[in-house]
Amino acid sequence: MPATPEKAFYVTTPIYYVNDAPHIGHAYTTVAGDVLTRWHRQRGEQVFYLTGTDEHGEKVLTAAAEHGMTPQDWTDYMVQTAWQPVLREVDIANDDFIRTTQPRHTERVQQFWQLLYDRGEVYKGNYTGPYCVSCEEFKLPSELLEGGLCPIHGRPVKEISEDNYFFRLSDYADRLLTLYREHPEFVQPASARNEVLRFVEGGLQDLSITRSTFDWGIPVPWDPSHVLYVWIDALLNYATAVGLGTDPDTFNRIWPPDVHLVGKDILRFHAVIWPAMLLAADLALPRTVFANGWLLVGGEKMSKTKLTGIPPAQITSVFGSDALRYYFLREITYGTDGSFSWESMAARYRAELADQFGNLASRLTSMVGRYRGGVLPTATTDPEIARMLAETVDAADDGFCRLDFQGALGATFAFIRAVNGYVTTTEPWQLAKDDARAADLDTVLCTTADALRACAVLLNAVMPKAAASLWSALGAEPGLGPLAAQRIQDLAHVRLPAGTQVRKLAPLFPRTEESAA
Ligand code: ME8
Predict the structure, then answer these.
(1) More exposed terminus of the chain, fewer Cβ within 10 Å: N or C?
(2) Whether residue 28 has its Cβ less than 6 Å from ligand 1
(3) Average pLDDT value for residue range 106-126
(4) Catalytic residue among 56, 105, 150, 264
(5) Helix (H, G, I), strand (E, B) or coil at 441
(6) CA end-to-end span of the chain, whole Å?
């Protein structure tokens, strides 16, 4: 019998609206997913990482009209010039990019809803009530701010009254509450779980799933005078991208998702509507929906709608993509809100990346060059540093797997600080003056080089460019193989072999005038 292929660890980001260009809020979620992906790959797991764009709905239709373009031309343009390039800008290693206008999506979405219609999960009714186009969400009157404004966008909502089709969402309240109770890991962090619990305990209303006043959407298969509501089209991207209904081999290898990364603004869609849709179709449920907090500007959510978004390139052009990736995950507890400031970005760049990590790498590579002609000597490594390394690997693995990026990076940088301290205390530059202490100097060089070998692997998920430069300067590949093939589980047991050719390294995080500002 052929071996059953291992189920992939499946990570997703939200698919982003193409009404405007991406800002660092979008990059934040996508980088978090990328780090998770790269970490799990280095644990030896198969990983499937999906991102993409959400192209239907009124918001995109309006943006296209404002630019005098058809919605399809507009979405093609935005995907090619803005949304796909930003992935390269911040170094994303996604496996697929789904667009909701692709036939592989639209056809499978129609099949899915036809199935639910045939099963009696859908009925015709009338929706009258508020709708926020910026959220693409039907609102409850009680949720609105004074003056009838959307609580997220601070903009007036539309009052709509349409004959629509409805999904029997209210039937699923009990099953959802059981799900949250039996699987506390389903919604994370705890604050998000509590919010979802409170919401569902308050009772659910059936959901309007079609719109009939515009046609930029997927036609309802049983009534083409309606299009599907953009959210119940968009949520299905996670399943259509991996072959729902038409490619069972791929689907069974990847489904269900292990982690849906979402911003807290779209938590209810993912933690309430989405599992109800899957239950109605008898599909397995995702393991976890993890909600990240907001990047704030002046205390408010950074947003395309409010034009407060900072494009990622504005940061990467000064600090590089590794530093952007590092900064947000180190600075903000994943799951809570946080602010960006140039001052704090520059301070972390200087103190942690340049002065701690970069400096340790420069010190070691130049000392091996100066004292040992660039060849790593034979020596045992310092047992205390080896012990700390083993603890650091465990802490980092635990942190990354729980999406505690801050904790994982905190542990790794504490180790880097300790190794820097070890170099300072052992004073290799003094040892080098005394031939009788050559063995001690060898120990310091081997210990430090090997600690950096481990750091390259520990930081590869977050800073792939710096990690690759370091791996190459350490000359690690001939002895140990490519960086990407290093396994987290082996990290504390492997050593950089004697005889390794170490090259002097250009600063990993150079100080530029702008980064020092
Ligand atoms: O909601 N802080 O798309 P969207 C942190 N198409 N994260 C932020 C952020 C901020 N200020 N701004 C955006 C949609 N994000 C739907 C999703 S999924 C089936 C459909 C991130 O373009 C965060 O992850 O408005 C948020 O959920 C996502 O971008 C929303 O992007």
Answers:
(1) N
(2) yes
(3) 97
(4) 150
(5) helix
(6) 63
pTM here is 0.96
User: Which residues are CB-neighbours of 151 under 8 A, at least 6 positions away?
Assistant: 143, 144, 145
- Please indicate whether residue 465 is annotated as part of the active site: no
User: Which pLDDT score is estimated for 141?
Assistant: 86
The domain 350-493: what is its CATH number? 1.10.730.10
**Cα gap 375→64, rounded to integer Å:** 60
Tell me which residue has its CA closest to atom 10 in ligand 1.
Answer: 25
Determine whether 183 is an active site residue.
no
> Residue 154: how many CA atoms within 13 Å on its side-chain side?
6
Q: What is the pLDDT of residues 2-43, one digit of tens each?
A: 556 799 999 999 999 999 999 999 999 999 999 999 999 999
Determine phi and psi for 458, rounding to 5 degrees: -65, -30
Nearest-CA neighbor of 376 among 253, 503, 468?
Answer: 503
Cα separation, 493 vs 473, in Å, equals 21
Cα–Cα distance, 380 to 497 (Å, whole number): 11
Please name the residue whose Cα sits nearest to atom 19 of ligand 1: 235
Ligand 1 lined by 335 (C-beta under 6 Å)? no
Percent of the chain whose predicted confidence (pLDDT) is above 90? 89
Torsional sign, CA 161, 163, 165, 170 = positive
Q: Which residues contact 457 (CB under 8 A, 6 or more apart)?
A: 42, 467, 483, 486, 488, 491
Lookup: tokens for 131: 């709708």
The residue whose CA is least distant from atom 23 of ligand 1 is 263
Q: Clarify whether 132 is annotated catalytic.
A: yes
Ligand 1 site, residue 260, Cβ cutoff 6 A: no
Cα 291 to Cα 31, 197, 325, 461, 496, distances in angstroms: 14, 14, 18, 20, 39
pLDDT for the residue 302:
84
Question: Left (φ > 0), alpha (ψ -120 to 50) or beta: where does 320 sit?
Answer: left
Nearest-CA neighbor of 31 among 49, 43, 17? Answer: 49
Question: What residues pair up with 99 in beta bridges, in sequence order?
Answer: 53
- Residue 302 Cβ inside 6 Å of ligand 1? The answer reads yes
Mean pLDDT of 239-253: 97
Q: Which residue has the least CA distance to atom 8 on ligand 1? A: 25
